[in-house]
Specification:
By secondary structure, this protein is an alpha+beta fold. It has helices at residues 21-25, 27-34, 58-64, 88-99, 117-136, 147-153, 165-173, 253-257, 262-265; strands at 11-19, 39-45, 48-55, 76-82, 158-163, 177-181, 193-198, 204-217, 222-227, 232-238, 249-251. It folds into two domains: 11-99, GIY-YIG endonuclease (3-Layer(aba) Sandwich); 144-265, Archaeosine Trna-guanine Transglycosylase, Chain: A, domain 4, CATH 2.30.130.
Length: 266
């Protein structure tokens, strides 16, 4: 019989809707509940949320708010004690972005979260183009789902090359080029763009560039691609399990710009 793994909760304890007078009248009780504990707290004026903050010592922060710029703006508080402080900043940002309290001067920011708005917009535009084609017959033909078939039919305009992050920074971003690429001469006339997939530890595509020229690289039988300008940001397009990026891959820029994962891009 399989036993369910016990999850460690993010919020360990909470105390809600307490009058600010408790901080002065019963400091020992507030100390017992909040001293040296991490968490998120909220200040209220009546039932209206005024301010959200985080602290590694909640008792001290609550006491400070009795005399700071928020002093006259709240009369009740709630505290939410968390398991450690690893995700405190993100938890605070999440609340700020949803509730937008008047007392907070800065909106919540996520350190690593991807903003999906442009991907959502691109997906909607893609569906609209498909609908327009179905209605009018005036639009792009359906792209083959088989990569070998797309290559045979020439349904590609972009090459995605793997690179170590250091080489990507120095050559692709710094010198507007990439080199030592294995290419068939039949492929070259179709290529208009190049994107770089950064290997370990990043595992993602973040930039692409328009190709200016493709020239032989030394006497290696490989090629160097020079960009027509600075590389542009894209994605990020993150790694997908099962996708082998030890060698260059061909795709379409339209697919790349609509992709969130490597599987969607190739």
């Amino acid at each position: 019989m399989n036993k369910k793994l016990k999850r460690t909760p993010l919020v360990m304890e909470h105390l809600e809707g307490i009058s600010r007078t408790a901080i002065k009248r019963y400091p020992e009780i507030v100390t017992e509940f909040a001293r040296r504990k991490s968490g998120v707290y909220a200040l209220y004026k009546g039932n209206t949320l005024h301010y959200v903050g985080l602290a590694k010592n909640l008792r001290t922060r609550l006491r400070d708010h009795l005399t700071d710029r928020h002093a006259q703006e709240w009369n009740r508080f709630s505290i939410y004690l968390t398991q450690g402080d690893e995700h405190l900043k993100e938890l605070e940002s999440l609340v700020l972005r949803i509730a937008m309290p008047k007392g907070n001067r800065v909106a919540g920011k996520f350190s690593e979260s991807r903003d999906l708005f442009k991907f959502f917009k691109q997906k909607v535009q893609h569906m609209q183009r498909k609908e327009l084609f179905e209605i009018t017959g005036d639009g792009p033909a359906e792209i083959s789902k088989d990569r070998a078939e797309r290559r045979r039919l020439g349904e590609y305009d972009t090459i995605v090359c793997p690179a170590h992050p250091e080489g990507f920074e120095e050559e692709f971003l710094g010198k507007n080029r990439w080199y030592a690429i294995r290419l068939s001469k039949k492929v070259i006339p179709n290529l208009k763009y190049i994107a770089i997939y950064m290997t370990s530890p990043l595992h993602k595509i973040t930039h692409y560039g328009r190709i200016d020229s493709i020239q032989p690289y030394q006497d290696s039988g490989k090629y160097m691609v020079k960009l027509s300008g600075k590389a542009k940001m894209i994605g990020p397009i993150v790694y997908s399990p099962g996708i082998n990026m030890q060698a260059s891959r061909l795709t379409l820029m339209e697919k790349l710009k609509n992709a969130r994962t490597l599987a969607e891009a190739l």
